[in-house]
Amino acid sequence: MTAKIIDGKAIAQEIRADLAKHVAQLTAQGNTPGLTVVLVGDNPASKVYVRSKQRACEEAGINSTVHRLAEETTQEELLDLITQLNADSTVHGILVQLPLPGHLNEEEVINAILPEKDVDGFHPINVGKLQIGAGGFVPCTPAGILELVKRTEVPIAGQNVVVLGRSNIVGKPVATLFLQENATVTICHSRTKDVAAEARRADILIAAVGRPKLVKRDWVKPGAVVIDVGINRVNGKIVGDVDFEEVKEVAGAITPVPGGVGPMTIAMLLKATVEAAARG
Ligand code: NAP
Q1: Helix, coil or strand: residue 148
Q2: Around 147, how many Cα atoms within 13 Å sit in the side-chain half-sphere?
Q3: Nearest residue CA, atom 21 of ligand 1?
Q4: Mean pLDDT of all residues in 53-62
Q5: How many domains does the structure of the chain reveal?
Q6: How many beta carbons lie within 10 A of that of residue 107, not counting itself?
Q7: What pLDDT does residue 251 have?
Q8: Sheet harboring 225-228: ordered strands across?
């Protein structure tokens, strides 16, 4: 059996085309959605991410502004900028590109963003809202993963979902989202006794560990849906956390890297920005 390849790029493109129509309606009402990205320092990967977010915004008709700040920016300067952006009614979404340089306090910066503008869903108010199912912004990668699985028309309720990784930006929130969809969710991490055995029980396996090709063929139940979140640079090439060539022979459906979860993350960021503008 060869797995169906889940084309995240095509699905993200559909979502972005729908969003562009919504943006046009809001613009006609004089309320063009606006996303402001704050980039501190010279991290090359961050620069690439910010450029693709900006391009995607422009394509959808969303106003995008990038504040590029020097590596030596102080905490006070950064917090002052966040205060200004919070007060600016043309800015509906604020995204501070992580990681920040080591001398800056990420937690304090995220806490300074108004929860209504926190389109990344990292503010503790939004994290708490996600836990109790009270709306609010959801981190973009987990939101994109759920959307991918839904659009693939895979059943979720009652299924065993196994999440590899427990980070605040992917593992924990994606586990919460699938729990809310009535899946039975297991979260694995570096101290899990037998990760392969847990993974083999999954109907839907989500790998977010940052270890190239960790998930092998014998970790996957035949017919399972495998979502590969990993982005690992190996010899100048990007590979996921799943050994794609092996696992596609046993899985029912699988996301490629690149072209799976990555494009969905950006589509969800745009969606959150449009929602923030529509809420007014
Ligand atoms: P992270 O903060 O480094 O967390 C990694 C998690 O994996 C941790 O919970 C860690 O356990 C666990 N882990 C590490 N080795 C393991 C092993 N051998 N078995 C089981 N669990 C293990 O990473 P992250 O930010 O969640 O990102 C994960 C991956 O997704 C990275 O490759 C990242 O680049 C990628 N990513 C992609 C997107 C996208 O848009 N596609 C977005 C975000 C992240 P402990 O907690 O015990 O240390």
Answers
A1: helix
A2: 28
A3: 189
A4: 96
A5: 2
A6: 9
A7: 98
A8: 4-5, 253-254, 225-228, 204-207, 160-164, 184-188
Distance from Cα 208 to the centre of ligand 1, integer Å: 4
What do you get for the CA distance between the two ends of the chain, in Å?
49
Per 3-state DSSP, the chain is made up of helix, strand and coil in percentages (nearest 5) of 45, 15, 40
Domain that holds residue 237: 139-262
Per-residue pLDDT for 1 more than 80? no
Question: Which strands make up the sheet holding 93-96, listed edge to edge?
Answer: 63-69, 34-40, 93-96
Domain with residue 175: its CATH number is 3.40.50.720
- Statement to judge: residues 98 and 191 lie in one domain: no
In CATH, what number is assigned to the domain containing residue 74? Answer: 3.40.50.10860
Residue-wise pLDDT for 189-235, tens only, equals 999 999 999 999 999 999 999 999 999 999 999 999 999 999 999 99
Task: Quick: pLDDT tens for 100-157.
Answer: 999 999 999 999 999 999 999 999 999 999 999 999 999 999 999 999 999 998 899 9
The pair of three-digit structure tokens given for residue 205, joined into one six-digit string: 């396996």
Check whether 32 has a pLDDT greater than 90: yes
Q: Summarize the confidence of residues 22-32 as an average pLDDT.
A: 98
Please report the atom of ligand 1 found closest to the CA of residue 166: 9
* CA–CA dist 2, 42 (Å, integer): 42
Checking 83-89 for CB contacts under 8 A at 24+ apart, the result is 83/112, 85/36, 85/38, 85/117, 86/112, 86/113, 86/114, 86/117, 88/36
The answer to whether residue 173 scores a pLDDT higher than 80 is yes
163 with 54, same domain: the answer is: no
The alpha carbon of 106 and the centre of ligand 1 are apart by a number of angstroms equal to 18
> Are 170 and 193 within 8 A, CB to CB?
no
pLDDT computed for residue 280 by the predictor: 79
208 within ligand 1 shell (Cβ under 6 A):
yes
Confirm or reject: Cβ of 250 under 6 Å from ligand 1.
no
